[in-house]
Write a structure and sequence with these properties.
The complex is a heterotrimer of chains A (290), B (285) and C (362). With 285 residues, chain B is mainly alpha-helical. Helix content of chain B is 75%, strand content 0%. The longest helix of chain B has 28 residues. Chain C has 14 helices and 13 strands. The termini of chain C are far apart. Chain C is globular. In chain C, helix 9 links the parallel strand 8 and strand 9. Helices cover 47% and strands 19% of the residues of chain C. Chain C has 362 residues and is an alpha/beta fold. The chains are: A mainly alpha (290), B mainly alpha (285), C alpha/beta (362).
Chain lengths: 290, 285, 362
């Protein structure tokens, strides 16, 4: 039975990692209505900045985290202002925004490669192992699971209880109507990118510590992130988090029976099935009017 | 002068990729289907033709089969996905490409997995002769899609792109049109893939990668959506664009990423300042 | 728009004007400077630069032109075509199977010798002007599995990176399994895998007694850490070399009990070369040294062969390289054999109580 527990735990941990990515991605999607692939790049940037602050510069760990989060939020806003906003002004299509986002991702990945190099980097931490119902989990992994849940609650509070959150939901529902009640969509987009990219920074720090850093890390994570989001519901953060946990579990339990090389294929097949049969995800939050 | 050999090489690649871009335009530019599975069709055509020709089938038959299998995949993919909205269609078709990549990597009995398939036979021995063949096929492709763009089928597709509900109300079978558009464009992508395989003589699962997808969409957008001419020109521009960069002497430590960086920057600039591309007639609303 | 095209055309053509007609020996290097192979191509340039400087210091005339293969066949083909047709190189070096496979037909057609570093043997059989460097994955996996079998382990797990070594390694492991009546189970993973927990859990369930591990440093870092976390401490024998997998970083950052007893092998690099590299690049790591040494040797062998055969055929160059026994390569080997392969000679060691102790394996 310890094996089964370990397996489920592995799935939960993997799911929490995907949830960290998916929450920011889904937040941005729900408000701005396009898929910000470059979210993965902000994540990678966050990880590498953390590495630079904590390891290369040797700053105090918490200071490094703070600096990284500030820079990540900032990076996200810069991307929005320099690229997406210009495209929005020109009424560019969803296709174009998607391509621009992928181009940004390539750009930043290459910058990371040029600046930090191709070899893998690590952020060493003290990481004791704990026993949990017969299975093993490390401190970092516990933190990841806890943080993903806390983030979920925090975002829920933000969206439901704060004025900003209500404004974001208004813009998400219907931008034009929101404008008529005096909400400035561009301001909301900026806030959305700040928060979403802050989340990417959190993800980058935690994932960097847990799984080490390599330049292309953003791409694979954002793909898993949006897969999780689609499963749960692309336009709803709780849905995205739920879907991510489901993805993590299915992947890990799936390769129990299938050859382990099929891990990624499982994710893609799930993505495919959900997009075909239930595009609004398990939580069924509809994105557009028919 | 051997310089011409290099130009021939570039021209062959441009020819093959123009087949891909022009066919992609039917689905994306004309019909409004954000199809990111095009690379999947390309790869299917390449692998099919490679495996068949290595098994002893005549080359032209292999290439044709590559196109046909790609077309069938396109039709099968279209069936469930065409009723999805824009971004979702993109994700589903992207998922298809990734699934194909995974199959290529794991179905080692057939595809040799990550080892790839080397020693694919060439169609003709010389590159200049091959260039002629590629140009002929590219010209045929261009002509076919040009004809389609002017035909009633093409106009209906554009109507579907602009306002599907209206098109339905006018009695058009939008479903059939969308499937046909994907199928036709997949066929040519498969042919392009087969030609690619017989030229480079080596393919591996990386053919299903996101890199080529970005390249294709760049060519498409730069040339302009819903313009057959635009696709051809977009292909040429994006292939020739990095060439001068080769000759700028970067310090070798940042040589590799530097070219990617400049390429991505140029692409972003074109997207921001000319999102309709050079000849595009539309933006997807 | 028209100006744009004119600009591109002008830049393109102007760059193609042949500026100097020197007597330099020109060698083209198609390196993976981006894509997944960048970890190899990037440091390799350091070795190439050292080779070029040394040759010139001795009065030799050499020019090495570097192009990025992006670790893919298509871009490698374009790079190869440019090097052969525009730069008129007399020899080429290339890394990894996909890029090398697409350059090979060009090398045959233009009769230009190529030294490549990859596992694919097919290139050798199809290209009489090709020479190959590298470890033999099939052999290394065979040796590793056989050693473990002889130590009494009956159920052996192969944790294998799904790249071009995967099928060859499995062949080697299966061969041992057939000869020794042991069971071998495979656990594949993709290059961007960052989580081995479920694979490890599976191995625990399958009662795996020892592991043959094939992957790179980044995978090893995670594998050794997670297996310790999960309490799966069985002996590990790496199927890839120390420079690729069981690097100094892995040794210094992994939990000690996880490393204990791990067997790996090294390609010895001559001390002289290591010192020269450290002088230029004090921070250089082991994996980088391996890549640099490979690049250095490839250039040296090719330059020496081309020098001996100035103006003569590619066949001359190939046989000159094969018979070149005077050159002290950076990678301690016996040079190229009659099969046109520069066999790297593994020297095995086992990690024990903080040190690597030499081990007799074969």
């Amino acid at each position: 039975m310890a094996i089964a527990t370990q397996l489920i735990l592995n799935g939960i941990i993997a799911g929490a990692i995907y949830a960290l990515v998916a929450s920011g991605f889904s937040l941005i999607y729900s408000v701005t209505k396009f898929m910000h692939f470059a979210h993965g790049a902000v994540l990678a940037l966050g990880a590498y900045l953390m590495y630079s602050f904590a390891v290369i510069l040797g700053l105090n760990f918490w200071l490094a985290i703070l600096l990284t989060l500030v820079c990540s939020g900032f990076a996200g806003v810069v991307m929005d202002q320099l690229v997406y906003k210009q495209l929005r002004k020109r009424k560019a299509s969803g296709a174009v925004l998607l391509i621009a986002s992928i181009a940004l991702m390539t750009l930043i990945t290459s910058l990371i490669l040029a600046f930090w190099g191709a070899d893998v980097k690590t952020v060493p931490t003290v990481n004791p192992v704990f026993d949990f119902l017969g299975a093993r989990i490390t401190l970092t992994q516990i933190i990841i699971v806890v943080v993903s849940v806390v983030l979920l609650l925090g975002l829920w509070l933000l969206m439901k209880k704060t004025k900003l959150g209500k404004a974001m939901r208004a813009v998400a529902d219907n931008k034009d109507v929101a404008m008529t009640v005096g909400i400035n969509p561009e301001r909301i987009y900026t806030y959305t990118f700040i928060i979403g990219s802050f989340l990417a920074g959190v993800a980058g720090i935690l994932i960097g510590i847990e799984q080490n850093l390599y330049p292309q890390m953003g791409l694979s994570l954002v793909i898993k992130g949006f897969t999780g989001a689609v499963i749960g519901s692309l336009a709803s953060v709780p849905g995205a988090v739920l879907g991510s946990f489901i993805l993590g579990l299915v992947e890990n339990i799936g390769i129990w029976w299938l050859p382990s090389g099929y891990k990624d294929a499982i994710a893609f097949v799930l993505l495919f099935i959900f997009l075909l049969f239930r595009p609004s995800g398990l939580l069924g939050v509809k994105v557009r009017e028919v | 002068m051997a310089f011409i050999n290099y130009l021939i090489h570039l021209a062959i690649l441009i020819g093959i990729y123009s087949i891909l871009t022009v066919s992609l335009n039917l689905a994306v530019g004309f019909t409004g289907l954000l199809n990111m599975g095009h690379v999947g069709f390309f790869g299917i055509g390449a692998y099919t033709s490679a495996l068949l020709s290595l098994a002893g089938f005549p080359i032209w038959l292999s290439i044709l089969c590559g196109g046909l299998l790609a077309m069938i995949s396109g039709l099968l993919l279209a069936l469930p996905t065409t009723r999805l909205k824009g971004d979702y269609l993109a994700l589903a078709t992207l998922g298809f490409t990734f699934i194909m990549g995974s199959v290529a990597r794991n179905w080692t009995d057939v595809t040799r997995g990550a080892l790839g398939i080397p020693g694919i036979p060439k169609i003709v021995k010389g590159n200049p002769e091959f260039l002629v063949i590629v140009l002929i096929i590219a010209a045929i492709t261009y002509f076919v899609f040009w004809k389609i763009s002017k035909s009633r089928f093409g106009k209906t597709c554009e109507a579907i792109r602009d306002d599907e509900l209206a098109a339905k109300m006018l009695g058009k079978d939008t479903f059939k049109h969308k499937i046909a558009a994907l199928g036709i464009s997949a066929f040519f992508a498969g042919i392009g893939g087969a030609l690619f395989a017989h030229y480079i003589t080596f393919i591996d699962p990386s053919i299903f990668g996101i890199g080529d997808l970005i390249l294709l969409f760049s060519m498409l957008i730069v040339g302009g959506l819903a313009s057959v001419k635009g696709s051809a020109i977009g292909t040429i521009i994006l292939f020739l664009l990095p060439e001068p960069l080769r000759f700028i002497g970067f310090p070798s430590s940042i040589l590799g990423p530097m070219r990617e960086i400049i390429f991505a920057l140029i692409l972003l600039l074109i997207l921001i300042y000319r999102p309709k591309g050079f000849f595009g007639r539309v933006d997807l609303a | 728009m028209k100006q744009f095209i004119a600009l591109i055309a002008f830049l393109f053509l102007s760059a193609c004007v042949q500026v100097e007609q020197s007597e330099s020996i020109k060698i083209g290097a198609v390196l993976p400077l981006s894509g997944w192979g960048a970890y190899w191509g990037s440091p390799e340039q350091k070795g190439i630069a050292l080779a070029v400087d040394e040759i010139r210091a001795q009065g030799g005339k050499i020019e090495v032109i570097i192009e990025d293969s992006k670790t893919g066949a298509k871009d490698a083909a374009t790079a190869g075509s440019k090097l052969i047709n525009i730069d008129k190189v007399q020899g080429i070096i290339s890394e990894f199977a996909a890029p090398s496979s697409s350059i090979s037909p060009m090398s045959v057609e233009s009769r230009i010798p190529v030294i490549y570093d990859a596992l694919s043997k097919k290139i050798l059989s199809e290209n009489p002007y090709a020479l190959k460097v590298y470890f033999d994955s099939e052999k290394e996996c065979y040796v590793a599995t056989k050693y473990l079998a002889q130590k009494g382990y009956k159920v052996i797990g192969g944790v294998i990176l799904n790249l071009d070594f995967s099928p060859e390694c499995k062949r080697g492991m299966d061969k041992t399994a057939g000869e020794n009546e042991i069971a071998v189970k495979y656990y594949d993973f993709d290059a961007d895998t960052t989580d081995f927990k479920t694979i490890i859990t599976k191995m625990q369930n399958d009662k795996i007694e020892s592991v043959v591990f094939i992957g790179y440093e980044d995978h090893a870092l995670i594998f050794f850490k997670q297996r310790s976390d999960l309490g799966f401490i069985v002996p590990v024998f790496t199927g890839t070399s120390k420079a690729d997998t069981f690097t100094d970083k892995v040794i210094s950052e992994s939990p000690k009990e996880s490393l204990e007893g791990t067997i790996t092998y090294d390609q010895k690099i001559r001390e002289g070369f290591v010192q020269k590299m450290n002088a230029r690049h004090p921070e250089i790591t082991d994996p980088d040294l391996f890549a640099a040494a490979t690049g250095y040797d490839e250039i040296m062998y090719l330059y020496r062969g081309l020098s001996k055969c100035s103006g003569k055929s590619a066949e001359c160059v190939v046989s000159a390289i094969m018979s070149d026994k005077d050159y002290q390569s950076a990678l301690e080997t016996e040079g190229f054999g009659a099969d046109r392969v520069m066999h790297l000679i593994p020297s095995y060691s086992t990690y024990s109580k903080g040190e690597l102790i030499p081990l007799e394996v074969e």
